Amino acid sequence: MLPLWIKISYTFFAVVTVAVYAVKYPPANFLWFSDIALVLTVPALWLESSLLASTLIVGVLLPEVFWNAGYFGRLLTGKRLAGLTDYMFDPGKPLYLRALSLFHVFLPLLLLWMVRRLGYAPQAWLVQTLLAWIVLPLTYGLADPKLNVNWVRGFGSAGRLRLPPLVHLCLLMIGFPALVYLPAHFLLAALFN
Questions:
Q1: Can you tell me the distance from the alpha carbon of 103 to that of 115, in angstroms, rounded to the nearest whole number?
Q2: For the whole model, what pTM was predicted?
Q3: Domain residues of the chain, as ranges?
């Protein structure tokens, strides 16, 4: 159902990106939900798995819309809308490294196309929630607090917390499923079922 050239092209891009990121970033960088989706899209493509593609798009659709709004908003207006894409405008980061991060632009489109072709699996919301309940505590325990991966140390690049750290983590574990995954699930179910 999915063209071979897309599978090969995306797999090549993902392998190159992972190899470069493995050299340039600490291992905990791969705990970002978008990086997890970048990697897991490879088996989703090759297996033509509706469940895996649906799970990934539930997890990243709204955050990637926000990332793209921040990136293109700043690109077009020069005004910073949010700190999520500040690194894309950091001249201290090599251009090739920033260019690889443009996967945030095409990955959600690819996943939406896959779900359109393969169908939307309604249990994706539950699977993504279970994944988040594994990834968020791992991130909290393994990632350098300064990196603030998945915002487990607070919101914003500095990770400012107004709550005790474990309370914040618990709220994230409730908030991601309720405020990010569930709205994406309802939207995707309405569009593709």
A1: 18
A2: 0.94
A3: 4-192
